[in-house]
Write a structure and sequence with these properties.
Shape of chain A: elongated
Radius of gyration of chain A: 17 Å
Strand order of the largest sheet of chain A: 2-3-5
Number of strands of chain B: 11
Number of strands of chain A: 5
Order of helices and strands of chain B: EEEEEEHEEEEEH
Order of helices and strands of chain A: HHHEEEHEHE
Number of helices of chain B: 2
Number of domains of chain B: 1
Oligomer: heterodimer
Helix content of chain B: 10-25%
Largest interface: A-B, 36 and 34 residues
Amino acid sequence: MAELKLNEVKSALEEMRPRFDAGFTGADKAYLDRVYYRLFGKEYPHKGTGCKDCYRDQYLIICSTMKKIKNLPKVDYALKNGVVLVIPFTNKYYSGIVPAEVAEAYLAKFPAKANLFSKLPDDWAKRCEKRVKAKDAPKDGGETDNSEEANGEGEKPTNETETNGETDNNGETEGGENEPNENETETNGETEGEGEK
Amino acid sequence: MANNCDFALAQNIAPDCDNPQVRGIEADGLIMNRKDVDFASCVKDSTNAAIIKTFVLKTGCKAYDIQQLGATPFTGTQSAFTAGTYRNKVTHDVQFLVPDHSPDVCKNIIDNLANGEFVVILFNKHKGTDGKAKYQVYGYEGGLRQTEGTRDPYSEDTDGGWLVKLQEIAPSSGIFIYDTDETTTDAAIASLRTPQP
């Protein structure tokens, strides 16, 4: 599946605008779901909202967000669907998009588990090595939530105590650009990103 | 080569009074293309081959919801002994209603169901000890293929939707997904539905 690019997303949104009133196609809806997940790191809450056609609302939210940002949120590490990354000896787990510090600490300990990631930077092994060197070994099998972790990307720390559906953990900042998922706080009861057992 | 085909009983046949058997299936299920399952990354429980600890989809692939209405969702779903020449097997039928007949549904669902091979995850009402019996996988071994598909525009039952039956002939009587605990397993199942970033 091709990487989402800002200009292509904008073009696609423009292309599906005429179908806003008549109703989006199945392909449109799948695309909107994908873009929403990329922007906000979670699924749109289709269930329980009572809206007649949630995809129209979803489309409007995406369009308004796209106007505010210069780049799509950067995603370095994402797990394949179905995989839950459990941090040993803690009650934390991750699925979907994983913060860089967590993924790198985990991969440093379990490099063979790289096959469980759907998205990895090319230099992930070097990054892991660098992270381990910067902080000896990660404690408890990979959880490193110190914001001073330096991998040169200015990542923001993830809130380790967030509950399901309030995730904003795909927000590796890209040079201070606007991040739509930073101010997204609604809950949808879905489990993606980070959860707490 | 080790021969582990003992086929010897290893447990009493008796009701579990702490977790009495409950009939029925929840109204929500998941379906995915069998070719999207990353079998190489899937991990079975080391002590019980009927449990998949890690059920993984390939990069960019996701599962789709099946939502059923009525008091007996997925009615017609059943498993039955099937005599074989060299080994006896179990025939698993999964039946559900596609409650729509429109161009999108015909193109994206009905035509593909008729020719593809699928895996379905149904949520048993009987959760078993620790929730181990909650998520049952059909089609993991042999793959589900459509054996029946009917649409009666005047049907009182289906209201003109498609009634579809998928079938798998497998060596196992049941395969379940369970990882660590019920919460982690819930997260893993939920992550199957998320679009890839």
